[in-house]
Amino acid sequence: MLKVRVDRELCTGVGNCVVIAPTVFKLDDENKAVILDPSSADDDKLMSAAESCPKQAIIIEDEKGNQVYP
Questions:
Q1: Mean of the per-residue pLDDT values for the chain?
Q2: Are strands 33-35 and 25-27 parallel, antiparallel or unpaired?
Q3: 59: number of CA atoms within 13 Å, CB side?
Q4: If I label 34, which of 6, 11, 53, 64 is the partner at 20 to 30 A Cα–Cα?
Q5: pTM of whole model > 0.90?
Q6: Domain segments of the chain: what residues?
Q7: What single DSSP character describes residue 24?
Q8: 1 band by pLDDT with thresholds 50, 70 and 90
């Protein structure tokens, strides 16, 4: 199971992550992505959402905490 987090300094609220994985991400009042339930999507969907971010604000780590994306 991959771990996911959002770098709010990099996030510009494009919303690609919300379109790809709406059960995992939403945009908050500041138009920044926040994580809802990362276990609601499989690893492929999490990676697709991260790869869709033009600012690379979504960080994916493996179960040992090693960064695998970006």
A1: 97
A2: antiparallel
A3: 10
A4: 64
A5: yes
A6: 3-69
A7: T
A8: confident
